[in-house]
Amino acid sequence: MSDLADLYQEVILDHNRRPRNFHTLAGASHSAEGYNPLCGDRLTLYLKVADGVVADVSFEGAGCAISKASASLMTDAIKGRTVSEVQALFDRFHRMVTTPPGQPVEDMGKLSALAGVREFPVRVKCASLAWHTLKAAMANEHQTSTE
Amino acid sequence: MIAGTRTGLNVERIRADFPILARTVHGKPLVYLDNAATTQKPRAVLEAIASYFTEINANVHRGVHELSARATDAYEAGRERVRRYFNAASTHEIVFTRNATEGINLVAYSFVKPLLKAGDEVLISAMEHHSNIVPWQLVCEAAGARLRVAPIDDTGTLLLDEFERLLGPRTRIAAVTHMSNALGTIPPVHEIVAIARRKQVPVLIDASQAAYHMRVDVQALGCDFLVATGHKLYGPTGIGVLYGRESRLEAMPPFLGGGDMIGSVTFEKSTWNVLPYKFEAGTPHIAGAIGLHAALDYIDAIGLDAIAAHERELTVYASDVLGAIPGLRIVGTSPDKSSIVSFVIDGVHPHDIGTIVDREGIAIRTGHHCAQPVMERFGVPATARASIAMYNTREEIDALGRALEKVREVFA
User: Fold this and answer.
1) B6: pLDDT confidence band, cut at 50, 70 and 90?
2) B405 touches chain A (CB under 8 A)
3) To the nearest 5 percent, what fractions of chain B are helix, strand and coil?
4) Can you list the alpha helix ranges (DSSP code H) found in B184-257?
5) Together in a domain, B197 and B249
6) Do both B295 and B395 map to the same domain?
7) What CATH number is given to the structural domain containing B152?
8) What is the pLDDT of residues B53-83, one digit of tens each?
C-alpha cells in the first residue's frame, strides 16, 4: 500500500477534488487539446501569453486523478513565469517522471508529488498529458496525444 | 463448500489446468477478471502449440515431405474442429483470419463494398465494438453510403423494434454483436437474423465475446457471416475465424492476394483457389489453428452449458457484491446479460480504480473498451470492467469487492 500512498498523496487528491484554474479563459492567446486514448483522459489548456510571460492559464476536461491533479498543479506552477522558464520547467518535470523508480530526483516543490507515478509506468502518461498539451499550446498546435 | 461449485462446475480442477492462475501479482494471488480482453490458456493449448513446433513444424499445403503433410493435416484438423464448434455445414465455410476484426474487414471489403452504392445503408447496433463500426464506416464513406445505428435503452438492451424499422430496402448488411464487450448484453440474435432474413438482408454476427460463454450454432442462427477470435476462446492470439455461408463466399472476390489463395498464376491473369483457401493468402498461423483446436477441445470437455451456468451465476453474484458498494453504479443492466460487470464509482475515475485494484493482484479493464459510442450513450468517459470466465470464483469477486472498498478509502 505504501507505493499507492506515494501515488495518491494528499496534495494530488486535493487537486483532483478541487482543481485550480479549472475553467475556460476568455482572451486566451494559445490553446491546445490533449487526449490520452488509452484511458480517455481529455483536457483543453488555455494560455494568455503577453510579453513572453504566461500571464494567465487555465484548463478544463475530464480525466483520472493523476492527470487532473497534474494539470492543476502545472497551471499553478507556470502562472507568471516567462516562456523560457516554462520550457525549463517542462524539461525538469519530464526528467522527474521518467527517472527510474529508486533513483533520486530533484525537488520540484509541489510538483514533486507526482514523482510517485514512477512506480506505475502506465500512469506516467497521465501525469505528462497536461505538460505535453502545454508544449503543444505554446507551439500553437491544435491537438496533442500522449500515445 | 468448494469455491464455485454451485453450478456443478469443478472450478478448482479447471484452475489447476491454467498455469498462470497460480502466479502472484504485487505479492497477491492473481485475480484475473479481464477475460473480455483475452482469456488465459489451459496447459493443453500450450502443449499443443509446443508439440507442433517440436515435432511437425513445416509449411502447409506445399511440400510432399512428411512434416508438411503432418502440419497440413493438423492445420486442417483445426478447421474441422472450428466447424464442429460452430456447427457449420462444411469446412469450406470456415476461413482462418488473424482475428475477428480481420473477418469483419474481409466481409466489408469482399462482400459489401462491391454491392454498395451511394444512398445504400449498413445497419449496426449502438453497442458494437470499434471493430464492428470502423470497417463499415470506411466502406460506407468510399461509396457515399450511410451507416445506420439501432439504438439501445438505458439498461443497454437493443431496441428490436427500432432495429427492424431501420432495416430498409437500401440496407446491404446488418452487423450485430452476439454479446456486448462493454455491457455484457446478449441481444436476441435469433430474432435479429430472422427479421433480417425476412427482409432479405444479409447478416453478420460478431461472436467474439459470446463464443466462449455460450453455444453458438451458425445453422440454428441462419446468419450469413459470423466472426470470432481465438484468444478469447482460451486459444492463442493471432488466429481468428470467419464463418461464411458457402454460397456467399463462393460469389465473393478474394480479400488479400498472394500465395496459397491462387489456382494458377500468370502475369496476365490468376485464378482463385477453392474455398476456403481463396481467402487465406500467405502462410497462415498454423500453430494458432492447432492451439485453437486444443482450446475448443478443452471448452467442450468442460461443457459450454455448464460454463454458461457458472458464469451467469457468478455475474449475478458480482452484480450483487459490487452493487452494494455505496457510490458504485453498474453500467449495463440488461435482463439478458452475462459475464461482464461494467461500473463507475462516484468521484473516482476508472483509471484510478484500475491502478488501486491492480496493487491487490486484481486485473480488470478500465477505459472505453473499444466502444466509445457506448460510453457516450451512458454519459461516462470510461468504465471499470470485471469480466468473468469459467475459472473465476466467488472468492475472487469478494476480493474485488474488498479492493473497491480500498478505492473508496483512498478517495474518501
Assistant:
1) low
2) no
3) 45, 20, 40
4) 189-198, 218-221, 246-251
5) yes
6) no
7) 3.40.640.10
8) 999 999 998 888 999 999 999 999 999 999 9
Backbone dihedral angles phi then psi of residue B37, each to the nearest 5 degrees: -85, -50
Q: Which residues of A touch B344 (CB under 8 A)?
A: none
In contact, B245 and B95? CB cutoff 8 Å: no
How many Cβ atoms sit within 10 Å of the Cβ of residue A52?
10
**What single DSSP character describes residue B367?**
E
Same-domain pairing of B318 and B403 = yes
Question: Does residue A144 carry a pLDDT above 70?
Answer: no
- Chain A partners within 8 Å of B349 (Cβ): 39, 62-65, 68
Cα distance between residue B63 and residue A123, in whole Å? 50
Model confidence at A146, pLDDT cuts 50, 70, 90, reads low
Name which CATH class applies to A2-136.
Answer: alpha beta
Q: Give how far B351 is from chain A: nearest CA, Å.
A: 6
- Helix, strand, coil shares of chain A, percent, nearest 5, are 50, 20, 30
The answer to whether residue B1 sits within a structural domain is: no
Min Cα distance A41 → chain B (Å) is: 8
Q: How far is B357 from chain A (nearest CA, A)?
A: 10
Based on the domain organization, do B308 and B296 belong to the same domain? no
Closest CA to A40 of A135, A129, A134, A143: A129
Question: pLDDT digit string (tens) for B144-153?
Answer: 999 999 999 9
Q: Which of residues 293 through 352 in chain B touch A, CB cutoff 8 A? A: 347-352
Q: Which of B349, B356, B359 sits opposite A63 (nearest CB)?
A: B349
CATH of residue B37: 3.90.1150.10
Q: Is the pLDDT of residue B180 over 90?
A: yes
Domain with B235, as residue range(s), is 46-301
For residue B281, count CB atoms less than 10 angstroms from its CB and return exposed for 0-12, middle for 13-18, buried for 19 or more.
Answer: middle
Last residue of a domain, one of B301, B332, B359: B301
Question: For chain B, what's the residue count?
Answer: 412
Cell of B352: 484510478
Domain boundary among B249, B279, B301: B301
| B270 and B134 belong to one structural domain | yes
Same domain, B311 and B223: no
